[in-house]
Design brief:
The chain is of the alpha/beta class and 373 residues long. It has helices spanning 10-17, 47-52, 69-72, 148-154, 168-173, 243-251, 274-284, 307-319, 345-348; strands at residues 22-23, 26-27, 80-86, 89-94, 97-101, 135-138, 161-164, 181-184, 189-191, 198-202, 222-226, 231-234, 256-260, 289-293, 331-332. 18% of the residues lie in helices and 17% in strands. Strand 11 (222-226) and strand 12 form a beta hairpin.
């Protein structure tokens, strides 16, 4: 099936094999998994539970969404603006350039549009309604971040595609010209020619693969986008790691941090943050304006669809957290911070208190500590 992509070969494979993150035929998380990220008392959910378990995994009605096209016609006053288009798809206006992250317009996070996790929320604009973009950035090759039908539509864009090592094999197979594909390893950067816009891959704690046979044959990365005046951090998918402190030191400071907060489970806590560990990652990254992503679009775990939003909203009220919770399609500027309005509560008319006692807790070295403890 063409949507599953292709294994890296030739010069692409040689570059992968030269990476310090590649050993024994696969990429590996070189940073040790922190204690406490997985709850050993909680078993992995069965296929039946994943397909049928959990409560309120999807909203009872469409989420409120705005049409961002009018806002996109005007440059951001501060030079930095972001529009959340669902899950991990964002349009970032930064210092006169536009970057599109992990573009997913497909109906399902799956190799086929006939089965697999189906989106419960439409993207607020069509691909044809996007403004001109300067660069497409893709963190890794999982189906909810690298979408075959979307990439096929984006072939028409004469712009660079910047991604992690090995992912370019999929893009080239789907029609993206090889000259426009730029694969980078952790701490490597791509600079858009003739500009001050760069994308740097940074460490994350995750895995990759579009089939069981291709697991971890491509790299996964966080991405730092830097313009002449501003810098933003985009987590991709990740668990909690002390390397966030190193990322802040080497690539910060950041004007905006975008961290994944949904699709988590205690039994796979080292591969996804969830809202509690996202708060800790946010602190390690320097505490800039925080926009949560990876929620509000697909049901990929057993928790309620709005649980991440509730946890973060409570934290914002208690700790004066610089939290941005825009509606889908709402173009926001971190410099023009506004208190969060819990718009998601009107969708189901239900409010769940966050279950803090059951939240996974990880232990960092004493030298790092938890700023939120």
């Amino acid at each position: 099936m063409k949507s599953m992509g292709r294994r890296p070969q030739g010069a692409r494979l040689e570059r992968i094999q030269a990476s310090p993150r590649f050993a024994g035929g696969t990429f590996r998380n070189l940073h040790p998994v922190l204690p406490g990220l997985r709850d050993p008392a909680v078993p992995m959910p069965s296929l039946r539970e994943f397909l049928c378990g959990g409560e309120r995994r999807a909203p009872s009605a469409p989420l409120p969404a705005l049409d961002p096209r009018e806002a996109w016609r005007r440059p951001p006053q501060s030079g930095l603006r972001v529009t959340w288009l669902g899950h991990s798809t964002l349009l970032i206006d930064i210092d006169g350039y536009r970057v599109l992250t992990d573009p997913v317009w497909g109906l399902r996070a799956s190799p086929t549009q006939l089965a697999g996790p189906k989106r419960f929320q439409a993207v607020p604009v069509t691909l044809g309604e996007l403004p001109p973009v300067d660069l497409v950035a893709i963190s890794h090759d999982h189906y909810d971040h690298l979408d075959y039908p979307t990439i096929r539509e984006l072939r028409r864009l004469p712009v660079p595609f910047v991604t992690s090592l090995g992912v370019g094999a999929h893009l080239e197979t789907w029609g993206i010209d090889a000259a426009r594909i730029h694969e980078i390893d952790w701490w490597e950067s791509f600079t858009l020619p003739g500009t001050g816009l760069s994308v740097t891959a940074a460490p994350s704690q995750h895995f990759s693969g579009r089939t069981f046979k291709t697991r971890n044959t491509t790299l996964w990365s966080a991405l730092v986008v830097r313009g002449p005046r501003h810098a933003v951090f985009f987590s991709g998918d990740t668990g909690l790691t002390t390397e966030y402190e190193l990322i802040r030191e080497r690539l910060g400071p950041f004007d905006l941090v975008m961290l994944e907060v949904g699709a988590f489970h205690p039994s796979w806590g080292d591969m996804h943050l969830g809202p509690h560990n996202a708060l800790r990652a946010h602190a390690l990254l320097g505490g800039a304006a925080f926009l949560p992503v990876h929620w509000g679009t697909f049901s990929l775990a057993l928790h309620a669809w709005d649980q991440p939003a509730e946890v973060l909203y409570e934290a914002a009220l208690e700790r004066s957290l610089p939290l941005l919770m825009p509606r889908l399609g709402e173009a926001v500027e971190p410099a023009h911070f506004q208190p969060v309005e819990p718009w998601w509560r009107a969708v189901d008319g239900v409010r769940l208190r966050p279950a803090r006692a059951s939240a996974p807790r990880a232990t960092l070295p004493r030298s790092v500590g938890w700023p939120l403890d």
